[in-house]
Amino acid sequence: MVILYILLLIVGFAALIKGADWFVDGSSNVARLMKVPGVIVGLTIVAMGTSAPELAVSTSAALAGSNEIALSNVVGSNMFNLLCVLGVCAIIQKVPVDENILKRDFPICILITIMTTAVIGFPTFRGRLWNSASVSDTVGEASRPLGIALLMIFVFYIVFLVFSAMKHPVTEKDDEKLFSVGRSILLILVGIALIVGGGQAVVNSAKEIARIAGMSETLIGLTIVAVGTSLPELVTSVVAAGKGETGMAVGNVVGSNLFNLLLILGVSSTIHPIGVNLASVYDLLILSIVTVVTYLFSAVGRSVKRAEGFVLVMIYVGAVIFAALR
Predict the structure, then answer these.
(1) 10-residue mean pLDDT series, the chain (326 residues)
(2) How many C-alpha atoms does 54 have within 13 Å on its Cβ side?
(3) pLDDT at 255
């Protein structure tokens, strides 16, 4: 049985890699046909496509009443995106950061992350419950009003990006070879299907392998599910960086984190308010700090360098160890 799950894991990875390759090709071609900057495509189409596994997992969890999975998946995925996805890309190749991302999208991501942490953890901060509560005690809530507010911000953000792209079209290069809109759309759709299918195959097989190995359900949720649903972001960003689409790579990470917080957490908490335990408040605080640190790395020289990439990956390893030990 273990061999079967290992084979499924390998097939899932293969689907992720090929799907990401086709998705990046199709998306970047559409961007050039429509004279839209690649960074905008990374913040919208690519981010939405690679966030599909998180949306599926968190929405299903909310509908099933497994609310903690819905929140931990979003928080864990955002940590993985910032620390591992961006870190691995920087280790492979120095990643330049678009000026618009530094001035607009990254600050918005920091603001939303801190705002969400403050709103959800307010009862904890107000009552100093961390002095008496255990990590499993419910100390706050991602309420339905918060979910609706996040969804409204999401709509305004997308509309803003669309108008921004319309105001600043890019100039097409004369020697650039483009293929048809139909082929681009086909590549995008097939790419998304492979990414989502591959991500689910990896998550399901990894969960079964982890159970057979004797890992706890809590540790599986904090690591395997969050990492598995973030694999599309990792593969897509690495492929994009390898193809020279560095704006799309960084835009995918920042865009995915915004999508996770605004769309996925918004939908999940609107469907069913999420009771939040003290462990999740700790995770949200860590995510807020990590987001600021990553922004500072990106702002220095407008790029994430190899040494900084190593630091980001090491921070993620430390965060996972902390989650396992607590």
Answers:
(1) 82 79 78 69 66 68 64 86 90 83 91 92 63 63 89 89 70 61 88 79 74 66 70 74 67 84 89 80 91 93 90 92 78
(2) 33
(3) 83
- DSSP-assigned letter for residue 213: T
Dump strand ranges (E) for the chain: 95-96, 138-142, 274-277, 303-304
What is the number of alpha carbons within 13 Å of residue 175 lying toward its C-beta? 0
Which pLDDT belongs to residue 82?
93
Say what the pTM is.
0.76
Q: Which residues of 85-111 are buried (b: 16+ CB within 10 A; e: fewer)?
A: bbbbbbbebbbbbbebbbebbbebbbe
- H/E stretch holding 23 reads helix 2-33
Which residue, among 290, 16, 29, 60, has the nearest Cα to 184 in the 3D structure? Answer: 29
324 contact partners, CB below 8 Å, separation of at least 6: 219, 222, 223
Structure tokens at 136: 């499993």
C-beta separation of 224 from 210 below 8 A: yes
Backbone angles phi, psi at 277, to 5 degrees: -90, 175
